[in-house]
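Each record in this resource describes a single protein on a pair of labelled lines. With that in mind, the following record should read easily:

===
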Amino acid sequence: MRRLQWVLALTLVGGGVAVAAETDRTFAERAATGGVAEVKLSMLAMDKATTVEVKQFARKMVEDHSKANGELKQIADKKNLTLPMTIDERHQKIYDKLARLDGAAFDREYMRAMTDDHDDTVKLFRNELRDGQDPELKSFAVKTLPIIEKHDDMAHMDKDNLSNMKLEK
């Protein structure tokens, strides 16, 4: 009986570790997917945006997300995690839609996509801080979350400013 209790205890502890590892793995994969998408969408915006604010925002996204993507990849490599390095289907649809737009319509839709993505990313990073178990991934989340929150604030402000401006259709 004592042995059965010990096996059950180990199973529960092991199951907890597996769940935590899965939480961390999911975080890393989703953060990488989002980071790759931010860079690709923002590179498009650097070419197509018509307002200085949107171009500056896009440039900042490319710089910051490229840096974060590199840091996350280094952590993942140490842990033998394979991260997605290409844009996912959902973001590809957004990219395709943006690629067909020009002028003010592009600027507005790009900023809408950025607010949506950054709202989701802030939640993702906060969840990692709350639920994650891996010290390096949590440290990455602690370091990166303030930058993502700043991006989110900037995206909302730029989106609101575009909504208030009279831009050509």
Observations:
- The chain has one domain: 22-164.
- The two ends are 76 Å apart (CA to CA).
